[in-house]
Specification:
about 325 residues, alpha/beta, TIM Barrel, GTP-binding, EC 4.1.99.22, rSAM_sf, nucleotide-binding
């Protein structure tokens, strides 16, 4: 494996690949896509698992050591487990993690544990069945909630991701933190982002990371800040005596861009060096045109070399075209 190859012009090393295996999802969360869904990719336009494995191997040869599997909902794609079995032995890959909506992950617990995949993020925006259904447009709260504790009891490290928005789930913030009293959970509160597949006219929630923190601090003035990895997107806290922790992710404020170590590959092969930017190239197309490993490596290196300073610069360069569904971007 080549060491420290993916370093952008600002000195940031990219060693973390977020790999989307599908743009399809069995939920219709308001902040991700319209209720009627989006124009999902045709099957022939999706990368095959063989193509994903080939590209993952190339990324690891360039210094990527961690891959997060995302979607859509990754577990709805047939063949996901055999793919993970092959991915886990790629040279240079130290860790595989997964993000899921929790509806299907429990079905695959034993297989994931056998592969050594123990870190899973569950998107959960409310602890109320009614609010959960309003947010996801699906009535699956009970199974998702029960599945979280099955994962915990099976030995998984579980993080809950909650997108915070006015008139949606503010009343859930404190109950989420209370979940960490007796459970070794990490709850992260995220600012709402504009990636919902709409026409861009939506008004985003004004609950930014400062307001979320102030609200929590009023209830828990003794919460102490934890030391996190330099590349962490979340500012993490722990309440004395609680088993778990909570964090706040400035996903729209983008205060963590200076240490971002992520690169993204969509299910159709689009390579993004920033969530807020346009695709730099399409690696699926290069593969299908017969490009060599060296050619693909070169295109990745060129994309990284042109990486913007932060998400605001990337957004400006995209000329405002940031309303793609998060299901397509892969988070």
């Amino acid at each position: 494996m080549k060491e420290n190859v993916l370093i952008d012009q600002y000195g940031r090393q990219l060693n973390y690949l977020r790999l989307s295996v599908t743009d399809r999802c069995n939920f219709r969360c308001y902040y991700c896509m319209p209720e009627e869904g989006i124009d999902f990719a045709r099957r022939k336009d999706l990368m095959s698992f063989e193509e994903m494995l080939q590209l993952s191997t190339i990324f690891c040869n360039l210094g990527v050591s961690k891959i997060r599997i995302t979607g859509g909902e990754p577990f709805i794609r047939n063949g996901i487990m055999p793919f993970l079995q092959k991915l886990r032995v790629v040279d240079g890959l130290d860790e595989i993690t997964v993000t899921s909506n929790g509806t299907l992950s429990a079905k695959y617990q034993a297989g994931l544990l056998q592969m050594g995949i123990r870190k899973i993020n569950i998107s959960l925006d409310s602890l109320s069945r009614e609010r959960f259904e309003q947010i996801t447009r699906r009535d699956n709260f009970e199974s998702v909630y029960a599945g979280i504790f099955k994962l915990l009891n099976s030995g998984f490290e579980v993080k809950l991701n909650c997108v915070v928005a006015e008139n949606k789930n503010i009343q859930d913030i404190i109950p989420f933190i209370e979940l960490t009293r007796e459970n070794a959970l990490s709850v992260r509160f995220l600012e709402e982002m504009p990636f919902n597949g709409s026409d861009g006219s939506q008004v985003l929630s004004d609950w930014n990371h400062v307001r979320i923190y102030d609200y929590i601090h009023q209830h828990y003035p003794n919460a102490g800040q934890l030391i996190s990895e330099t590349s962490s997107t979340s500012i993490n806290y722990k309440i004395p005596g609680y088993k778990g922790s909570f964090g706040i992710i400035p996903s729209f404020s983008r205060t963590f861009c200076g240490t971002c170590n992520r690169i993204r590959l969509s299910a159709t092969g689009e390579l993004r060096t920033c969530l807020y930017g346009l695709p730099a190239t399409n690696l699926r197309d290069l593969l299908r045109k017969g490009a060599s490993t060296e050619d693909i490596e070169q295109q990745i290196l060129i994309a990284v070399s042109k990486r913007e300073a932060d998400g605001f610069a990337a957004e400006a360069a995209s000329m405002g075209e940031i309303n793609t569904s998060m299901s397509v971007l892969g988070g």
